[in-house]
Structure formats: C-alpha cells, structure tokens
Amino acid sequence: MAIDLEALFPRIVDLLLDPVFVVDETGQIVFVSDACRSLLGYQPDELVGTRVLDHVHPEDRERTRAAAERIMRGGSHIDFENRYFRKDGGVVHILWSARWSEEHRVRIAVARDVSSLKRAENVRSALYRISEAAHAADSLPTLCGAIHRVIADLLPADKFYVALYDASGDTISWPYFADDRQLPRVPEPLDPGSAIANVISGGGALLARRGSESLEPGAVRASSDALGDWLGVPLVSGKDVMGVVVLENASQVEPYTDKHRDLLQFVSTQIAAAIERKQAQERLLHMANHDALTGLANRALFYDRLRMALHRARREAECLGLLYLDLDDLKTVNDSLGHQAGDRLLCELADRLVACTRASDTVARMGGDEFTILLAGLSDSSGIDVVIGKVRAALSAPLMLDGQEVSLSVSIGQALYPEDGELPDSLVRRADADMYEHKRRLRAG
Fold it and tell me: Span of the secretion signal (predicted)?
C-alpha cells in the first residue's frame, strides 16, 4: 500500500519537540507547528498571520531583522540566538536553524529553547564576576556598583539598591543606590510597614507593585499579583538577615516573574558573601588606620594623607596648613576623676575638632593627648587663622564629667607649606615646635 507522505507530513512536523516556523517574505508567520504551545504559550492559530518581529524582544529586533535579510539572500543560519516573548510575558532564549526557500518565497526555521542553558551559563558567569569583584573593589559602594552591573546582565535592573540592616538599632543604611531619588546618608529607623521590612522579617523574597511613582523605596506595598515591578531579596548571613537587595523595573515590557525572583534569590547568596567579605576588610582597614578610642585617623593614616596633600599642593600651587594641638591638664583629670573620664574628655575633644573642619580636612590623634589637623587646598595662611578661631570657640564651652565641670584647653602650633617646609617631617616638626613654644609662654604667664 502506498503511503501518502504529503498528507502525513503535517502530523510528522507536529510530533517534533522543536517548533517549526514558516515565515513569508513580508515577515508574517504562515505556519507554525504544535510545539509552539510549550515554547511560547500560544496556539498555532494565534501566531499565524502575525508579524514574527512583534514577538521578538525589542533589544534583539534589529539584529533579527538583519539575520532574516541574510537568509532571504540565500544564506543560512544554524546558530542564531535571540529572545522571544511568551504569551504570559516571560522571555525565552531561542536558538534557530533557518534557510530560505526560493521556490515558495518563505523562510523555514526550527526553534530550540535554550533558556535553561543560557540561564545556567549566565548564573555561573555572574557568580564568578561577583566573587572577582569582592576581591577587586576598593570599597563597599564600589562593590555594590559592580554587583549592579552583573545583575543587569541577568534580569531587568533599571533601579538597584542595597539596604543593610542593623538589628541592634533596628535601622537600615544604604551603601549603594542607583536611582534618581535621594536617601539619607546615615542609618535610619526601619519602617515596619515597608516592603523592605517585610523581606527582613519574613526572610523571603518579595514581588511587589509600586503604589505610585513618588513612593519612596521603603514604602513599596506588597502585592499578591503574579507579576511585579519591585523585587526584593534578603541577604542572609548564617540564620540572620543582614540586608536586602532590591530591583525596580520601569519597563512594562518584561515584568518580574517568579523565575526572576528565584534567580535573584539564588545569586543573593554570593552577593551576601561578597558584601560580608568587603565589610570585614573595611573593618580591618579602619582598625589599622584609625585610633581605637576616638575614631580619628591615626599617625600612619595622617602621614599618608599629608604626603598626598603635599603632592597635590605642589601640582596645583596651593598652600597647605598643619595644626599641632596638645590638650592641657589631661593628667589632672586622670588623677582626680579617673582614666575613663580622661578618655571621655579625649573623645569630646575629637568630636569638637572634627566639627570645626571641612570634610576634606584630616583630624588625627598622634598619640596620648596630641592631635593634628591637616588643612589642604588653602589659598593663603588666613585659612589657618580661621580654623584656629573655630577651635578656640568650640572649646570654650565647658564639659561635665562625673558631675564636675571641666574646661577644654589646648595649646596650638602651626605650620604652612611651603613657607615652613616642603617635606612631611619638616612641617610636623615646625608645628610641634610652635605648639611647645605656645605652651612654654602659657606656663611662663
């Protein structure tokens, strides 16, 4: 019995696991096999008559159009990859094998879903890049910026921020925030009604819908919708939530889905480890460069900044000022009220000195009751006099220690680059000598 292969052919095509597409020269789909249901979620008759480019991800349309033109000129493609939208809004990565039929004036193509392979490849790359960034980044904000770039290659990340949680004070801080909104630079109380609080308390990822465009990130309302434009995932350390990584998607083309949530949650383990590593490094670096009692720069950091400031002053033809301060009568406080009171006196002095200076200046504790202030970028010596006046005024207010009023008094010496020296040691010696001369005159009455 002869077999009518022509009649049997459509049934054979529909048995194939990979969908077969036939597209005419105008770009319209004229045939698609039943396997398109599992690939794109459409029934075949829903696709027939539509433009194939309408189903392609916007970022891939131009190169898809160029590939179609090459095929229509007689070329073939066996490894062209692009992204298509599913009926449910999801995105699928497709590897195509296609050729042109001149006789029928159509493109015949077979589509293979490589989303799982692509996702696995991207995740492996992301984990490696995050680990690499943890070693290379010089600060926590720099690390978070590198993580943002990695995540943006995995899923939509128009806005990205990291919120770190301090359980002891129930506060959150923002080491990184890629958005046009302004957030506090200091830790703030955690809003118990916010989506971030929901993620922290529940310890699970959250898809949410923003109630309005003006909503602050801490006030996003949770939603039970299957799709979302706000995605928050906890950063877990051991059994504790150390923070939240948040993505916001401004595009309605590709809303977040459970797959996005699961992907970010998987990668978040590496993100948390990288942030913890960087925090530990920064703590060790801070301990190595700062005074343990006052939190000021220590001698080593002071000299490092002095060398850099001198290099800039030479290059920019600027002045540089240096103050050397010695706290008067610390021994009297230690002897009468105890060393703990003396420590509080030193800390209060440090706070008042910092309040008298700019963010670009450096206040350092050189040891014991001796402090320095590095004033960079001065136009002339008058800048030193202004700071000395501020210091005198700030120290004029008395301090209460253990119920006793204690006066803050310092002897101050000064040096100016380049008049008093051009090297770090010569400037410090000059300011130190000037300070002791002031102290000598004070004692002489």
Answer: none
Question: What six digits make up the tokens of 359?
Answer: 């963010």
In angstroms, the CA 363 to CA 133 distance is 32
Percent share of the chain, pLDDT over 90? 50
Q: Please give the residue range of the domain that contains residue 211.
A: 118-289
What's the domain count of the chain? 3
Are 45 and 138 in a shared domain? no
- Contact (Cβ atoms closer than 8 angstroms) between residue 416 and residue 319: yes
Asked if residue 233 and residue 125 are part of one domain, the reply reads yes
Q: What is the mean pLDDT of residues 267-291?
A: 91
Task: Verify that 328 and 270 share a domain, yes or no.
Answer: no
- Same domain, yes or no, for 107 and 122? no
pLDDT tens figures, 292-321: 999 999 999 999 999 999 999 999 888 999
Looking at the structure, tell me whether residues 122 and 71 fall in a common domain.
no
Structure tokens at 41: 């979620």
In a shared domain, residues 137 and 105: no
Question: Which band of pLDDT confidence, cut at 50, 70 and 90, is reported for residue 253?
Answer: low
Instruction: Tell me how far apart the alpha carbons of residues 78 and 108 are, in angstroms, rounded to a whole number.
Output: 12
- Which residues, at least 6 apart from 88, have a Cβ–Cβ distance to it below 8 Å? 41, 257
Report the CATH number that the domain containing residue 55 is assigned in CATH: 3.30.450.20
Count of other CB atoms within 10 angstroms of residue 388? 17
> What whole-number distance in Å separates Cα of residue 356 and Cα of residue 396?
13
90 and 131 both lie in a single domain: no
Most confidently modeled range among 136-145, 255-264, 298-307: 298-307
Calculate ∠ Cα 329-331-335, nearest 5°.
125
Tokens standing for 71?
A: 């095929």
The pLDDT mean for the chain works out to: 86
Query: Cα(414)–Cα(428) distance, rounded to whole angstroms?
Result: 9
9 lies in some domain = no
CATH number of the domain encompassing residue 257: 3.30.450.40
In whole angstroms, give the CA distance from residue 204 to residue 75. 50
Model confidence pTM above 0.70: no
302-309 long-range Cβ contacts below 8 angstroms, 24+ apart? 302/362, 302/364, 302/366, 302/372, 302/374, 303/424, 305/362, 305/374, 306/362, 306/374, 306/424, 306/427, 306/428, 307/424, 309/374, 309/376
96 shares its domain with 124: no
- The whole-number pLDDT of residue 383 equals 85
In a domain, 294, yes or no: no
What angle, rounded to 10 degrees, do the helices at 339-355 and 382-395 form?
140
